[in-house]
């Protein structure tokens, strides 16, 4: 499909630009775009990949690395990462991101921060001016299950009237449970709240019971978007 092609285009271009032989410790994000990142890294050949270590950002990411026969490492062994490449749900004009559509944003943010360079790869639907324009489900917030009901009240008080617990779709009754055993609250805000994503992040993060917030502010070195016409847009 056009969208899959644009994901692949973004991922391949980003790997070609940012994953060089001298990069040995590499963070792999989560979602449906990063498989193309792994595909392109594998294509660099066994030789160069032999002395690299790949750090996952969750169960799906780990499976990607294992299935590609790449060497699996962990961020407690390798706390300083050369480059991490990840997807995003939306990216604004300043490279602030909404992330967490896949409920992996705690480990993703740890590996984004731990990397000298953090790169975002996405299809054209994620390329936005202001957050909340194309990704309408709200800010994903990973929360301690014990605190979720109080947090729903407090997030609503922050201005997200429609904040809701993310429920599993089919195959499991009840809420989505993250790789860390936590719940996720999706909190839609209106446009002016997203005008200053960093202050929104700070306000949400300070609520008791919040584990991590799916707003990644001023962390990306660059964002690569594949376009439907086969071109690539790079924001930095
Ligand atoms: O959850 C996340 O932040 C993932 O990176 C995910 O949202 C990326 O989405 P994708 O499947 O469009 O790559």
TrEMBL record:
So, what pathway does this thing act in?
A: Carbohydrate degradation; pentose phosphate pathway; D-ribose 5-phosphate from D-ribulose 5-phosphate (non-oxidative stage): step 1/1
Q: Which UniProt keywords apply?
A: Isomerase
Q: Tell me, what is one Gene Ontology molecular-function annotation carried by this entry?
A: ribose-5-phosphate isomerase activity
Q: Which GO terms describe its biological process?
A: D-ribose metabolic process; pentose-phosphate shunt, non-oxidative branch
Which catalytic reaction applies to this protein? aldehydo-D-ribose 5-phosphate = D-ribulose 5-phosphate
Signal sequence annotation: none
Q: Which domain of life is it from?
A: Eukaryota
Look up the EC number in the record and give it. 5.3.1.6
Top-level class of the enzyme under EC nomenclature: isomerase
The record's Gene Ontology cellular component field reads: cytoplasm
Protein family according to the UniProt entry: Belongs to the ribose 5-phosphate isomerase family.
| Name this polypeptide is given | Ribose-5-phosphate isomerase
Q: Which organism is it from?
A: Phellinidium pouzarii
Q: Describe which stretch of the whole protein the shown chain covers, with first residue, last residue and complete length.
A: 36 to 271 of 284
């Amino acid at each position: 499909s056009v969208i899959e092609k644009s994901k692949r285009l973004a991922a391949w271009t980003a790997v070609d630009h940012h994953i060089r032989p001298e990069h040995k410790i590499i963070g792999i994000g989560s979602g449906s775009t990063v498989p193309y990142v792994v595909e392109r890294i594998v294509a660099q050949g066994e030789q160069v990949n032999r002395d690299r270590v790949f750090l996952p950002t969750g169960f799906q990411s780990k499976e990607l690395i294992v299935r590609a026969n790449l060497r699996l490492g962990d961020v407690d062994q390798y706390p300083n990462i050369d480059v991490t490449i990840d997807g995003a749900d939306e990216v604004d004009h300043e490279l602030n991101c909404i992330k967490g559509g896949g409920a992996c944003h705690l480990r993703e943010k740890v590996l984004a921060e731990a990397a000298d360079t953090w790169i975002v790869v996405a299809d054209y639907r994620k390329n936005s001016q202001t957050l909340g324009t194309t990704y309408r489900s709200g800010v994903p917030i990973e929360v301690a299950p014990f605190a979720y009901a109080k947090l729903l009240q407090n997030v609503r008080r922050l201005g997200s009237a429609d904040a809701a617990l993310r429920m599993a779709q089919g195959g499991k009754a009840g809420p989505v449970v993250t790789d860390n055993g936590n719940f996720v609250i999706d909190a839609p805000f209106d446009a002016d709240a997203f005008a200053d994503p960093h202050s929104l992040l700070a306000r949400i993060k300070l609520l008791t019971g919040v584990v991590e917030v799916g707003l990644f502010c001023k962390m990306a070195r660059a964002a690569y978007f594949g376009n439907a016409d086969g071109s690539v847009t790079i924001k930095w």
